[in-house]
Amino acid sequence: MNVRTLAAASVLALAAGLLQPVAAQAATFVSFTPRTILAPGLPTEEEGGGVDQNVTPVGTISLTMTASQTAYVVAKMRVNNATIRSLFDNEVVCSGPGGWTENMVIGQNVYDRTSGSPNQDVTLYTRFLVHPGVAGTVTCTANVRGNSLSNDDATYDLVSGYLQFADTSVVNDALGEPVQSGVSAGVYGMNATHREVRLPALDYFTMPAGVTNLNVVADSVLMICYPSTSCDKYGSSQVKFTLFINQWRSDGTLCKTDSSVQITHDVPYWVHHKYVPLNKPDFAVSDAPGCIPRFNAYVKAEWLGGQLAGIQGTATDLVDSRGSSGTHDSHMSHAFVLPS
């Protein structure tokens, strides 16, 4: 697996605007039943080491789509009451016609219930676009993935959540494709000598005539003390995140830019993976002379100090189920656009 306090204001922003469906049409929805989740202990060296990860399906939705259709999927999960600090992943696995698949996972460690930390109650959103490009039925399943971060088994509670096709008619770009991009596998490090990473990023894209607003979403997973590095386990890392959105003129010069959405996190080593959602729901498309509906966007992550940090890309070789020999990949840090 790859990367993992939102302030109250950030949580409110997330709930109030950042995840609101855009012109939702007959969305398919399932609410999760509260339950206790097993988080298996880490195998000892005598047992072979590694990770024994449990995968708990908690809800499934389906949607019949046309070849040109794009839908917006959102999964919300809240967990707490962990007996031992454990990994908590909110994963959505989708499949469709012709062997098409699209998977997304967002993760963060949940602290044990006696820690007194705000990180003992964690809410994660996994959200992305699906576009099979072939007519047929798309089925998406939400999984809680997790394991204890000690050799002993742990449990934590899935308190609430849902899985939803929040919009079933997302506007595509001028080429008929959704505007979405993930970060390829790996951890993209930041430190005193390499202080900045511009990921996730949306390369240049053009929207069709009539689009007047862009809702730009960028979700990052920040890792503290990435693998094969020396770190102070009692330290933290300070990283500033800024979402940049640019519109361009026909002559290639900048028409409009926005960098108003930003947040700085001081993340302890023991959190290890920090969910960092950014959202600009109201980037108005300019029609000033020379401006055209051509855009790009990216997150600038700036290392300010402390321990090494990195942006996590696609998680590779995740087990399909506990003990399974079957594996799959899931995108992590990613960005997309909901135009209107």
TrEMBL record:
Alphabetical keyword list: Signal
Signal peptide from the UniProt entry: 1-26
Disordered as annotated region, ranges: 320-340
Protein name per UniProt: Secreted protein
Organism listed in the record: Jiangella anatolica
